[in-house]
Specification:
The structure holds two protein chains of two kinds.
Chain A lengths: L8 E10 L2 E11 L4 E5 L6 H9 L6 E6 L2 E2 L10 E4 L11 H11 L4 H14 L15 H14 L4 E5 L7 H18 L2 E6 L2 H7 L2 E6 L2 E6 L1 H6 L4 H6 L4 E8 L2 E4 L2 E4 L8 E7 L4 E6 L8 E9 L3 E7 L4 E7 H4 L7 E6 L5 E3 L9
Parallel strand pairs in A: 3-8, 3-9, 6-7, 7-8
Antiparallel strand pairs in A: 1-2, 1-4, 4-5, 9-10, 11-12, 11-14, 12-13, 14-20, 15-19, 16-17, 16-19, 17-18
Chain B lengths: L1 H41 L10 H4 L5 H34 L5 H13 L2 H18 L7 H22 L3 H10 L4 H12 L1 H16 L3 H5 L5 H11 L1 H40 L10
The chains are: A alpha+beta, B mainly alpha.
């Protein structure tokens, strides 16, 4: 086994500027020992910058990086004891897999025999013991990233940093490797920061997900909480799909097309607002041929996504997305009239002119 | 249909092959006829008989031997100095100062646009000072030669660095605990070995064939000595010219062979060791 205990990592009020652009604007984040935190956000939100500051690949303009209680802000990368897997394939092309994995051990002056033993052990951990003598160009993308993971873990780092390691892989390999990364992380118990723009990846494997925008953390919490109780409209719209429906806030709830829905922020002032409703909170009940009303509309499209389907319903003045099991969706082909029902989950409110399309 | 396609492809292959052979033969004739003429001239006796007299008398010209040794030393020093100067600079510019890449490229390519005679006029005062205060050894020519080979070597090394992800590889090595020196020596250099080999070949060939700078600065390298000897004894001069061409050819093939053997050894290791079945999981 490579390692069994993680350390606490603290990013304290980190600031990073590139000329006039502020990439990180006072980011603070504490990662518990052995925890996997995923930073999620659109391109340019600062998530990779945060990871690179933790790795020591860039210097902060302000704030501190504390690993295991020690301030490492001024330490160069090669003295930080972090393992890192990069987005681009980063295996050294002139070395075979086990030599790649042993490189970090060699830098730590580990003896030849011990080095090889530990390199092979790390390769076994990622299930690639049998390709130890292959060069990078003889391995698939997935294998290369697994060897890179073994290389990062072999040095027994205090922190594991994953910088979009799956983004260059095809969907099937990505899903498999994602689960494998989680298995290994749990097995090794290493504190891990995972940076991704893929919300499915982040929600699937992280203990906590941090959603970033404009260099700041918008929300940090367990995946289910981030999804079901987004702290801000940005989080609601970035994580998962959201319907933006016009409504009126009154007395701690919002009325949307005749339906009263509870609020995530109950202290919000009364008045017109846009309610952000998840597609899975929208259900289609029966055929609405003979009915009229604000929640009766016509099915525009049915998008088959495998086990679930996404149905777009035209309500006349707006369109609404509904997500449901494919078996249920198949009862409402395009062109049929349906009546919608909104589940009374707490919804977020956005104070702006309501938009007509679902985002 | 498929048979017809195969037939067309086969005809194309044959035509291409014939074209290649013709081009190769023309190039060979172009290069070999002057060489053959030189060999013929350098082995022609006074009465038209064949003799190796000019060839055997090369050793009777100690200045020529000295010039050959000096040129080889210069080729070696220039190549090493060029690599030490150029490789770390270019890597650093790529990693840390990409905004300077155009300026560095411009500076490196500048000698290409300046005629050697103009360059040497500029260098002359410096060499007078060097000769008076430091050393008047012919090896000081290496300073000028490093400048002369810069454009060619820059292009070769730039192509090598462009073929690898220098940033990611060096960051990966750094995160594993490598110092910058280790990154350079253990990660970057092995992966641009072809480019380094090409740059070395170019700089060796250029230095062995250099005449203008050495002659104007009053140093006797191989080419200068050849010209001197040519005035005194044309037969010996041509014999030395052929010998130096053969020497340069052998040297360049030798350098290429050493580089090639290293790559072959690596690929054989892959063939022998990498035969285990690939595990069929992710990827």
């Amino acid at each position: 086994m490579i390692q069994r205990s993680g350390v606490e990592v603290r990013l304290e009020n980190l600031v990073r500027r590139y000329g006039t652009v502020t990439a990180l604007d006072g980011l603070s984040l504490t990662i518990a020992p052995g925890e996997l935190v995923a930073l999620l956000g659109p391109s340019g939100c600062g998530k990779t910058t945060a990871l690179r500051l933790l790795a020591g690949l860039e210097e902060a303009d302000g704030g501190r990086v504390v690993v295991a209680g020690k301030d490492v802000t001024g330490l160069p990368t090669n003295r930080r004891n972090v393992g890192m897997v990069f987005q681009a394939y980063s295996l050294f092309p002139h070395m075979v897999a086990w030599e790649n994995v042993a490189f970090g051990l060699q830098m730590r002056k580990v003896g030849t025999e011990e080095r090889k033993k530990r390199a092979l052990e790390a390769l076994e951990l990622v299930g690639l013991g049998r390709v130890a003598n292959r060069y990078a160009n003889q391995m698939s993308g997935g294998q290369q990233q697994r060897v890179a993971l073994a290389r990062a873990l072999a040095i027994r780092p205090q922190v594991l940093l994953l910088d979009e390691p799956l983004s260059a892989l095809d969907a099937k390999v990505r899903a498999r490797l994602r689960d494998e990364i989680r298995r290994i992380q749990l097995e090794v118990g290493i504190t891990t920061l995972f940076v991704t723009h893929d919300q499915e990846e982040a929600l699937a494997i992280a203990d906590r997900v941090g959603v970033m925008q404009l260099g700041r953390l918008e929300q940090l919490g367990p995946p289910t909480l981030v999804y079901t109780r987004p702290a801000t409209p940005f989080v609601a719209e970035f994580v998962g799909l959201t319907n933006r429906l016009a409504g009126t806030v009154k007395g701690g709830s919002v009325e949307v097309r005749g339906v009263q829905l509870p609020l995530v922020q109950p202290d919000i002032a009364d008045g017109p607002a846009t309610a952000l409703v998840r597609p899975e909170a929208v259900t289609l009940i029966g055929r609405g041929d003979a009915e009229e009303g604000p929640l009766v509309g016509t099915v525009l499209t049915v998008a088959f996504l495998g086990a679930v389907s996404r149905v777009t319903v035209d309500l006349g003045d707006t369109t609404v997305l509904a997500q449901m099991p494919t078996s249920a969706a198949s009862q409402h082909p395009a062109g049929t009239k349906v009546r919608l029902e909104l589940r009374s989950d707490p919804v977020l409110i956005q104070r702006e002119e309501p938009a007509s399309a679902a985002s | 249909m498929a048979v017809a396609m195969r037939s067309v492809q086969r005809t194309r292959r044959i035509k291409l092959q014939v074209f290649r052979i013709v081009v190769f033969a023309l190039a060979a004739v172009f290069f070999l006829i002057p060489l053959a003429a030189m060999v013929e001239f350098s082995t022609r006796g006074i009465n038209g008989e064949r003799t190796l007299e000019y060839w055997t008398s090369i050793v009777q010209y100690p200045d020529m031997i000295k010039a050959i040794i000096a040129s080889v030393q210069l080729a070696l020093i220039t190549s090493v100095a060029m690599l030490v100067l150029l490789v770390p600079t270019m890597v650093w510019v790529r990693l840390k100062l990409p905004q300077l890449s155009r300026i560095v490229e411009f500076v490196c390519l500048l000698p290409l646009t300046i005629p050697a005679i103009v360059l040497v006029t500029g260098l002359f005062p410096m060499y007078i000072w060097l000769g008076t205060n430091v050393s008047d050894s012919i090896l000081t020519l290496a300073f000028a030669y490093v400048v002369l080979v810069l454009p060619y070597c820059y292009r070769a090394i730039d192509a090598g660095l462009g073929a690898i992800d220098v940033k990611t590889l060096s960051e990966a090595a750094r995160s594993l605990g490598a110092s910058w020196l280790t990154v350079m020596w253990r990660v970057i250099v092995p992966n641009i070995s072809n480019a380094i080999l090409n740059a070395t070949l170019l700089s060796v060939a250029l230095v062995l064939g250099e005449y203008t700078v050495a002659n104007v600065l009053l140093y006797s390298n191989l080419q200068v000595e050849l010209v001197h000897l040519g005035r005194a004894n044309a037969g010996v001069s041509i014999a030395v010219a052929v010998a130096s061409l053969m020497f340069a050819f052998v040297l360049l093939v030798g350098i290429a062979f050493v580089g090639g053997r290293r790559r072959r050894t690596q690929s054989e290791a892959v063939t022998n060791l990498g035969k285990g079945p690939v595990q069929g999981s992710a990827g």
